[in-house]
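Good day; I would like, with your permission, to put a structural problem before you. A protein sequence and the structure tokens that stand for its backbone fold form the material at issue. Thank you for your consideration; the sequence and its tokens are set out here:
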Amino acid sequence: MRTRTQRLDELPFTSRHRRMLGGAGIGWALDAMDVGLISFVMAALTVQWGLSPTENSLIASIGFVGMAIGASVGGLLADKFGRRYVFALTLLIYGLATGAAALSTGLAMLIALRFLVGLGLGAELPVASTLISEFAPRKIRGRVVVGLEAFWALGWLLAALIGYFVVPIGDDGWRWALAFGLVPAVYALVIRFGMPESVRFLESRGKHEEAEEVVRGFEEAAGPEYGRSPRELDGHSAQGTQPENLEQPTEHPETLWSRRYRGRTLALWVVWFGINFSYYGAFIWLPSLLVAQGFDLVKSFEYTLIITLAQLPGYAAAAWLIEVWGRRLTLAVFLSGSAVAAGLFGLADTPGTVIAAGMALSFFNLGAWGALYAIGPELYPTATRASGTGQAAAFGRLASILAPLLVPLLLDGGGQVLVFAVFAIAFVIAAAAAFTLPELKGTALEDSGAASREPARRG
């Protein structure tokens, strides 16, 4: 007797999986495009509005304040109301807010709208990764989630292209760049009506008929050999008894800080903090740092575009290694590589060394992001999966708030060398924390949140 989640786990990667990954991935890419665009807007406004480093820091950090709140609240809402609905809502919020930001008449208005953008962005990422992880076949789940995260590189590359070709066209170039952010608002309708709800979430709410319909659709896409016996038509046996592993709502699910989960929660939060601190501290400021080194605006955008291209092979390597080495080792190795690359970037002083070190940083850092998003949803049961991932992301966003504010101070205290030395140390701490996470490659996602249940086993 197989449960619906077991039936999903045993499926091959079908056209339905591909469409779902593409649908969520486009939303993910649009998210990255928005985050990436602000770095080019900051560099342009430094010239046009005469913004100080402190004012630029406020523009960068206020978005991450919104992301911290959005990640925490979005995960809780997704566990309560469903993954698909919250995913669509987040796209709508940040799309409309970004479009409105293009009409900003001053710094205060831009900062206020960037906060709203952050709310949507922060909520969208953990919800999307949770939704995809709950549909991906067990044997390639990590690879599929890294594939989702790879869309981030496409979005950041799109931001770099817009920054390179659109922002420099004139005084209103940055406005036209932000206007592209309206696209997610339209795409939210596609998400709302075109993607299925998580089967695990539906079953946790007793919506068995709807869950069965979703599973049948995926089985039909896989072919006739994946059909079900009559005993499995409604998820119950012929005698009306409940399958042993079918998820049931629990009155007292374990919390993220219960004895069973506190170690992995602490380690996950440390990794999220370290990777956010270094990634956003470096990449949000990258165009401005290049301008400060003496490169003109167009040349700094060109170098940023080249550096961004290295994100794609970084994701590809992580997607392959995560099912070979496992989640924990892949994450730790890519974080360690990021630390080395950050140190080299701090010492770079010629165009060639800047590009080489920057590409290494892109390669390792974005590969680490892919592994992190794959491992997070596997650590918790369905009842707390989205909120567990979301709260870890929310804690990490505190670092992304702090990092842009610290960069000007670090620059004054020791220049670029000090800035990237601090980023390297943060990567090292995150790598050490990653080694303490459990290895869950090949395991089934845990369905029950009850303390009386055993952890999900292999097979």
The longest helix spans residues 385-434. The chain has 17 helices and no strands.
